[in-house]
Amino acid sequence: MNILVTGGAGFVGSNLVQYLLNKYPQYRIVNLDKLTYAGNLANLEAAFENPNHSFVKGISATGSWCSASSATTLATPSSIARRNPTWTGASKARRNSSQQTSWNAGAPRMRRESGISKFLQVSTDEVYGSLESGRRSTEETPLRPSNPYAASKAAADLLALAFYRTYGLPVVVTRCTNNYGQFQFPEN
Predict the structure, then answer these.
(1) Given 33, 128, 149, 157, which residue is catalytic?
(2) For residue range 36-63, what is the model confidence (pLDDT) as tens digits?
(3) Are 56 and 65 in contact (CB under 8 A)?
(4) For residue range 131-175, what is the model confidence (pLDDT) as tens digits?
(5) Of 33, 126, 128, 157, which is the active-site residue?
(6) How far is CA 162 from CA 44, 108, 116, in A?
(7) pTM listed for this prediction
């Protein structure tokens, strides 16, 4: 199996790449990252020693190098300071999430040409907005993003799900809470 991981040099992405290489040594991992402030090739030191890991610097999951049967989107900045419109601007946050998703899940031809069998959209619980104290979100909780980053992630989630409904691309959307651990960007 071939897996395309976008944002694979970032905190969550690099941990996912290493996990996949260790758990599934027969899989080929194509790691696509444009190496923004949070992308760090040092996070992938062990992965570069694995012949089943390929790194591509860029932002578009199209091209002859892309032959993945599964794709995962992790390519969105996770820092609150960097996603705050005061620092980056709402339009940039929106572009980062929704364009990355559309480039990766978006083209139905990608499924035909590269045989993608599953698309994993890694989102955030921030798409639910603020919850009352003691309440938890579920899959039925309405989307009520309260900042540009959360709105862009909600848009990306809906776009990925629309590709499922329209083109039959199997999609899984995860909405995790804050993550921490090895390779975390110091600002977070």
Answers:
(1) 149
(2) 888 899 999 999 999 999 999 987 555 5
(3) yes
(4) 788 888 888 899 999 999 899 999 989 988 888 888 888 888 989
(5) 126
(6) 33, 11, 16
(7) 0.70
Structure tokens of 125?
A: 């619980």
- Concerning whether 126 is annotated as a catalytic residue, the answer is yes
Active-site residue, 24 included: no
From 27, 125, 164, 167, the catalytic residue? 125
Token pair listed for 64: 């002859």
Residue pointed to by tokens 């540009």: 148
- Judge whether 149 counts as a catalytic residue: yes
How many Å apart are CA 163 and CA 136, to the nearest integer?
28
Q: Which CATH superfamily is domain 2-176 in?
A: NAD(P)-binding Rossmann-like Domain (3.40.50.720)
Which of the two residues, 26 and 170, has the higher pLDDT score? 26
Residue 21 near residue 29 (C-beta atoms within 8 A): yes
The DSSP line for the chain is -EEEEETTTSHHHHHHHHHHHHH-TT-EEEEEE---TT--GGGGHHHHTSTTEEEEESS---STT---SEEEE--S---HHHHSTTTT-HHHHHHHHHHHHHHHH--HHHHHHH---EEEEEEEGGGG----TT----TTSPP---SHHHHHHHHHHHHHHHHHHHH---EEEEEE----STT--TT-
55 exposure class (CB count in 10 Å sphere: 0-12, 13-18, 19+): middle
